[in-house]
Protein backbone atom coordinates (compact mmCIF):
# COMPACT_ATOMS: atom_id res chain seq x y z
CA UNK A 1 0.00 0.00 0.00
CA UNK A 2 1.23 3.51 -0.80
CA UNK A 3 -0.14 6.00 1.72
CA UNK A 4 -1.60 9.12 0.08
CA UNK A 5 1.08 11.20 1.72
CA UNK A 6 2.39 11.52 5.22
CA UNK A 7 3.85 14.94 6.08
CA UNK A 8 7.64 14.96 5.95
CA UNK A 9 8.88 18.01 7.86
CA UNK A 10 12.60 17.32 7.93
CA UNK A 11 13.71 20.33 5.89
CA UNK A 12 13.81 24.03 6.74
CA UNK A 13 10.21 24.20 8.03
CA UNK A 14 11.11 25.02 11.63
CA UNK A 15 13.81 27.49 10.59
CA UNK A 16 11.56 29.47 8.25
CA UNK A 17 8.49 29.41 10.53
CA UNK A 18 10.72 30.59 13.40
CA UNK A 19 12.03 33.37 11.17
CA UNK A 20 8.46 34.44 10.35
CA UNK A 21 7.59 34.39 14.06
CA UNK A 22 10.68 36.39 15.02
CA UNK A 23 9.89 38.96 12.34
CA UNK A 24 6.31 39.18 13.63
CA UNK A 25 4.70 38.47 10.26
CA UNK A 26 2.20 35.74 11.11
CA UNK A 27 -0.85 36.76 9.13
CA UNK A 28 -1.48 37.64 5.46
CA UNK A 29 1.44 40.05 5.13
CA UNK A 30 5.12 39.13 4.98
CA UNK A 31 7.86 38.05 2.62
CA UNK A 32 7.27 34.30 2.71
CA UNK A 33 3.95 34.65 0.87
CA UNK A 34 5.59 36.46 -2.06
CA UNK A 35 8.52 34.01 -1.95
CA UNK A 36 6.24 30.96 -2.00
CA UNK A 37 4.18 32.37 -4.88
CA UNK A 38 7.37 33.20 -6.78
CA UNK A 39 8.98 29.79 -6.21
CA UNK A 40 5.81 27.92 -7.20
CA UNK A 41 5.55 30.13 -10.30
CA UNK A 42 9.17 29.34 -11.24
CA UNK A 43 8.65 25.61 -10.69
CA UNK A 44 5.44 25.51 -12.75
CA UNK A 45 6.79 28.00 -15.32
CA UNK A 46 3.82 30.35 -14.88
CA UNK A 47 3.60 34.10 -14.35
CA UNK A 48 0.61 34.36 -12.03
CA UNK A 49 0.11 32.47 -8.77
CA UNK A 50 -2.02 33.46 -5.80
CA UNK A 51 -1.50 31.79 -2.41
CA UNK A 52 -4.80 31.00 -0.68
CA UNK A 53 -6.11 29.30 2.46
CA UNK A 54 -7.01 25.98 0.80
CA UNK A 55 -7.53 24.20 -2.48
CA UNK A 56 -11.26 24.54 -1.90
CA UNK A 57 -10.89 28.34 -1.61
CA UNK A 58 -8.88 28.34 -4.86
CA UNK A 59 -11.61 26.38 -6.64
CA UNK A 60 -14.31 28.69 -5.25
CA UNK A 61 -12.43 31.78 -6.49
CA UNK A 62 -11.84 30.16 -9.91
CA UNK A 63 -15.57 29.59 -10.31
CA UNK A 64 -16.38 33.16 -9.25
CA UNK A 65 -13.80 34.49 -11.71
CA UNK A 66 -15.30 32.27 -14.43
CA UNK A 67 -18.57 34.14 -13.88
CA UNK A 68 -20.43 31.06 -12.63
CA UNK A 69 -23.77 31.98 -11.03
CA UNK A 70 -26.89 30.18 -9.83
CA UNK A 71 -28.19 30.10 -13.40
CA UNK A 72 -25.26 27.99 -14.61
CA UNK A 73 -24.08 24.40 -14.61
CA UNK A 74 -20.53 23.12 -14.30
CA UNK A 75 -19.24 19.76 -15.54
CA UNK A 76 -17.43 17.77 -12.83
CA UNK A 77 -16.06 14.21 -12.71
CA UNK A 78 -17.86 11.40 -10.91
CA UNK A 79 -14.62 10.26 -9.30
CA UNK A 80 -13.17 12.95 -7.07
CA UNK A 81 -12.92 14.23 -3.54
CA UNK A 82 -16.09 16.21 -2.79
CA UNK A 83 -14.17 19.51 -2.43
CA UNK A 84 -14.03 19.71 -6.23
CA UNK A 85 -17.84 19.85 -6.33
CA UNK A 86 -18.82 21.77 -3.19
CA UNK A 87 -17.74 25.22 -4.51
CA UNK A 88 -20.14 24.77 -7.46
CA UNK A 89 -22.95 24.48 -4.93
CA UNK A 90 -21.60 27.46 -2.89
CA UNK A 91 -22.54 29.57 -5.93
CA UNK A 92 -25.96 27.96 -6.29
CA UNK A 93 -24.87 26.42 -9.61
CA UNK A 94 -25.54 22.78 -10.51
CA UNK A 95 -22.86 20.14 -11.10
CA UNK A 96 -23.24 17.93 -14.18
CA UNK A 97 -21.49 14.67 -13.35
CA UNK A 98 -19.34 13.15 -16.09
CA UNK A 99 -18.07 9.56 -15.97
CA UNK A 100 -14.38 8.78 -15.58
CA UNK A 101 -12.39 6.18 -17.51
CA UNK A 102 -9.61 3.78 -16.51
CA UNK A 103 -7.22 6.70 -15.93
CA UNK A 104 -9.62 7.65 -13.07
CA UNK A 105 -10.06 11.06 -14.75
CA UNK A 106 -12.85 12.47 -16.96
CA UNK A 107 -13.78 10.23 -19.89
CA UNK A 108 -13.17 12.53 -22.85
CA UNK A 109 -15.24 10.44 -25.27
CA UNK A 110 -18.28 10.66 -23.01
CA UNK A 111 -17.59 14.36 -22.48
CA UNK A 112 -17.51 15.01 -26.20
CA UNK A 113 -20.64 13.00 -26.97
CA UNK A 114 -22.48 14.76 -24.11
CA UNK A 115 -21.57 18.19 -25.52
CA UNK A 116 -22.51 17.06 -29.02
CA UNK A 117 -25.75 15.22 -28.32
CA UNK A 118 -27.14 16.72 -25.12
CA UNK A 119 -26.21 20.37 -25.63
CA UNK A 120 -26.17 23.12 -28.25
CA UNK A 121 -23.90 26.12 -28.66
CA UNK A 122 -25.25 29.71 -28.57
CA UNK A 123 -23.55 33.12 -28.47
CA UNK A 124 -23.94 32.98 -24.69
CA UNK A 125 -22.31 29.57 -24.37
CA UNK A 126 -23.12 25.88 -24.22
CA UNK A 127 -26.75 25.15 -23.35
CA UNK A 128 -27.88 21.90 -21.72
CA UNK A 129 -30.88 20.74 -23.81
CA UNK A 130 -32.57 19.20 -20.78
CA UNK A 131 -32.33 22.07 -18.30
CA UNK A 132 -31.84 24.99 -20.75
CA UNK A 133 -29.06 26.24 -18.44
CA UNK A 134 -25.69 27.45 -19.68
CA UNK A 135 -22.81 25.13 -18.83
CA UNK A 136 -20.13 27.66 -18.08
CA UNK A 137 -17.12 25.60 -17.08
CA UNK A 138 -15.60 22.19 -16.56
CA UNK A 139 -13.61 21.18 -13.49
CA UNK A 140 -11.02 18.60 -14.51
CA UNK A 141 -9.58 16.65 -11.57
CA UNK A 142 -6.12 15.10 -11.99
CA UNK A 143 -6.99 12.55 -9.35
CA UNK A 144 -4.09 10.83 -7.48
CA UNK A 145 -1.68 12.77 -9.73
CA UNK A 146 -3.02 11.18 -12.95
CA UNK A 147 -3.08 13.77 -15.72
CA UNK A 148 -6.46 13.92 -17.48
CA UNK A 149 -6.36 14.03 -21.28
CA UNK A 150 -5.78 17.78 -21.51
CA UNK A 151 -5.16 17.78 -25.26
CA UNK A 152 -8.67 16.50 -25.93
CA UNK A 153 -10.25 18.48 -23.08
CA UNK A 154 -8.83 21.77 -24.38
CA UNK A 155 -10.09 20.96 -27.89
CA UNK A 156 -13.57 20.22 -26.55
CA UNK A 157 -13.54 23.31 -24.32
CA UNK A 158 -12.55 25.48 -27.25
CA UNK A 159 -15.25 24.05 -29.50
CA UNK A 160 -18.00 24.21 -26.88
CA UNK A 161 -17.00 27.46 -25.13
CA UNK A 162 -16.19 25.96 -21.76
CA UNK A 163 -13.87 27.57 -19.22
CA UNK A 164 -11.38 24.97 -17.96
CA UNK A 165 -10.58 24.80 -14.26
CA UNK A 166 -7.92 22.21 -13.49
CA UNK A 167 -8.19 20.75 -10.01
CA UNK A 168 -4.53 19.82 -9.63
CA UNK A 169 -4.83 19.65 -5.86
CA UNK A 170 -3.51 16.08 -5.94
CA UNK A 171 -1.12 16.59 -8.84
CA UNK A 172 1.65 19.05 -8.03
CA UNK A 173 4.66 17.76 -9.98
CA UNK A 174 2.75 15.90 -12.71
CA UNK A 175 3.71 17.02 -16.22
CA UNK A 176 3.55 15.95 -19.86
CA UNK A 177 6.70 14.22 -21.11
CA UNK A 178 5.68 14.31 -24.77
CA UNK A 179 3.11 15.67 -27.21
CA UNK A 180 1.55 19.10 -27.61
CA UNK A 181 1.93 20.01 -23.94
CA UNK A 182 5.40 18.51 -23.43
CA UNK A 183 6.91 20.04 -20.27
CA UNK A 184 3.59 21.55 -19.12
CA UNK A 185 2.49 20.82 -15.58
CA UNK A 186 -0.97 19.71 -14.49
CA UNK A 187 -2.83 22.88 -13.52
CA UNK A 188 -1.07 25.14 -16.03
CA UNK A 189 -2.92 24.26 -19.23
CA UNK A 190 -6.52 25.38 -18.60
CA UNK A 191 -7.78 28.85 -17.70
CA UNK A 192 -7.28 28.19 -13.99
CA UNK A 193 -5.27 25.67 -12.00
CA UNK A 194 -5.61 24.92 -8.30
CA UNK A 195 -3.21 23.13 -5.91
CA UNK A 196 -3.72 22.02 -2.32
CA UNK A 197 -1.18 21.89 0.49
CA UNK A 198 -3.37 20.07 2.98
CA UNK A 199 -1.67 17.57 5.29
CA UNK A 200 -2.14 14.63 2.91
CA UNK A 201 -0.69 16.33 -0.19
CA UNK A 202 2.78 15.91 -1.73
CA UNK A 203 3.85 19.14 0.00
CA UNK A 204 1.99 20.64 2.93
CA UNK A 205 1.53 23.98 4.64
CA UNK A 206 -0.84 22.43 7.19
CA UNK A 207 -3.70 23.86 5.16
CA UNK A 208 -3.34 25.99 2.08
CA UNK A 209 -3.64 26.24 -1.66
CA UNK A 210 -2.42 28.02 -4.78
CA UNK A 211 -4.46 29.44 -7.62
CA UNK A 212 -2.92 29.82 -11.07
CA UNK A 213 -4.68 32.01 -13.63
CA UNK A 214 -3.69 32.41 -17.29
CA UNK A 215 -5.03 35.96 -17.35
CA UNK A 216 -3.08 38.41 -15.17
CA UNK A 217 -6.11 40.61 -14.49
CA UNK A 218 -7.98 37.56 -13.15
CA UNK A 219 -5.06 36.60 -10.93
CA UNK A 220 -4.99 40.16 -9.58
CA UNK A 221 -8.72 39.96 -8.97
CA UNK A 222 -8.30 36.64 -7.15
CA UNK A 223 -5.80 38.29 -4.82
CA UNK A 224 -8.21 41.19 -4.27
CA UNK A 225 -11.19 38.93 -3.54
CA UNK A 226 -9.10 36.72 -1.24
CA UNK A 227 -8.28 39.71 0.99
CA UNK A 228 -11.86 40.90 1.62
CA UNK A 229 -12.01 43.02 -1.59
CA UNK A 230 -10.49 45.98 0.18
CA UNK A 231 -10.37 49.03 -2.10
CA UNK A 232 -8.91 51.37 0.46
CA UNK A 233 -6.79 50.06 3.33
CA UNK A 234 -7.33 53.21 5.38
CA UNK A 235 -11.07 53.83 5.01
CA UNK A 236 -12.13 50.21 4.39
CA UNK A 237 -14.04 50.94 1.21
CA UNK A 238 -15.44 47.83 -0.52
CA UNK A 239 -17.05 47.62 -3.95
CA UNK A 240 -17.34 43.84 -3.92
CA UNK A 241 -18.05 40.89 -1.67
CA UNK A 242 -14.66 39.62 -0.57
CA UNK A 243 -13.40 36.53 1.22
CA UNK A 244 -10.88 35.76 3.93
CA UNK A 245 -9.04 33.35 1.64
CA UNK A 246 -5.44 34.61 1.64
CA UNK A 247 -2.66 32.31 2.84
CA UNK A 248 -0.80 33.38 5.97
CA UNK A 249 2.92 34.06 6.14
CA UNK A 250 3.36 31.19 8.61
CA UNK A 251 1.80 28.74 6.16
CA UNK A 252 3.90 30.18 3.33
CA UNK A 253 7.08 29.81 5.42
CA UNK A 254 6.33 26.10 5.64
CA UNK A 255 5.49 26.05 1.94
CA UNK A 256 8.87 27.51 0.94
CA UNK A 257 10.63 24.82 2.98
CA UNK A 258 8.43 22.04 1.59
CA UNK A 259 8.88 23.15 -2.01
CA UNK A 260 12.66 22.86 -1.60
CA UNK A 261 12.08 19.12 -1.08
CA UNK A 262 9.39 18.49 -3.70
CA UNK A 263 11.65 16.70 -6.19
CA UNK A 264 12.92 14.45 -3.40
CA UNK A 265 9.34 13.65 -2.32
CA UNK A 266 8.40 12.79 -5.91
CA UNK A 267 11.43 10.53 -6.35
CA UNK A 268 10.66 8.78 -3.05
CA UNK A 269 7.07 8.21 -4.18
CA UNK A 270 8.27 6.75 -7.49
CA UNK A 271 10.65 4.35 -5.70
CA UNK A 272 7.88 3.29 -3.28
CA UNK A 273 5.57 2.59 -6.23
CA UNK A 274 8.23 0.50 -8.01
CA UNK A 275 8.89 -1.54 -4.84
CA UNK A 276 5.14 -2.06 -4.28
CA UNK A 277 4.65 -3.28 -7.87
CA UNK A 278 7.49 -5.82 -7.51
CA UNK A 279 5.94 -7.42 -4.37
C1 LIG B 1 -9.52 16.40 -5.70
C2 LIG B 1 -9.48 17.42 -4.59
N1 LIG B 1 -10.09 18.60 -4.78
C3 LIG B 1 -10.06 19.55 -3.83
C4 LIG B 1 -9.39 19.35 -2.64
C5 LIG B 1 -9.48 20.43 -1.62
O1 LIG B 1 -8.25 20.90 -1.16
P1 LIG B 1 -8.17 21.51 0.33
O2 LIG B 1 -8.26 20.38 1.27
O3 LIG B 1 -6.84 22.20 0.34
O4 LIG B 1 -9.30 22.46 0.47
C6 LIG B 1 -8.73 18.12 -2.41
C7 LIG B 1 -7.97 17.83 -1.19
O5 LIG B 1 -8.30 17.90 -0.09
C8 LIG B 1 -8.80 17.13 -3.41
O6 LIG B 1 -8.22 15.94 -3.22
What does this protein structure show overall?
By secondary structure, the protein is α/β, with parallel strands linked by helices. The chain has a single domain, classed as Aspartate Aminotransferase, domain 2, CATH 3.40.640.10. Strands 1, 2, 3, 4, 5, 6, 7, 8 and 9 form a nine-stranded mixed sheet that branches. A hairpin with a 5-residue loop joins strand 5 and strand 6. The termini are close together. The structure holds pyridoxal-5'-phosphate.
Gross morphology: globular
What radius of gyration results from the CA coordinates? 19 Å
- In CATH, the topology is named Aspartate Aminotransferase, domain 2
Strand content: 15-25%
Secondary-structure element order, N to C: HHEHEHEHEEEHEEEHHH
Quickly give the structural class: alpha/beta
The beta-strand count equals 9
* Terminal CA distance: 10 Å
Give the % helix.
25-40%
Number of domains: 1
SS element count, helices: 9
Largest sheet: 9 strands, mixed
Considering the protein shown, what is the CATH homologous superfamily? Type I PLP-dependent aspartate aminotransferase-like (Major domain)
Low-confidence stretches: none
Q: Using the coordinates above, name the CATH class.
A: Alpha Beta
Bound molecules: pyridoxal-5'-phosphate
Oligomer type: single chain
pLDDT average, as an integer? 96
CATH architecture: 3-Layer(aba) Sandwich
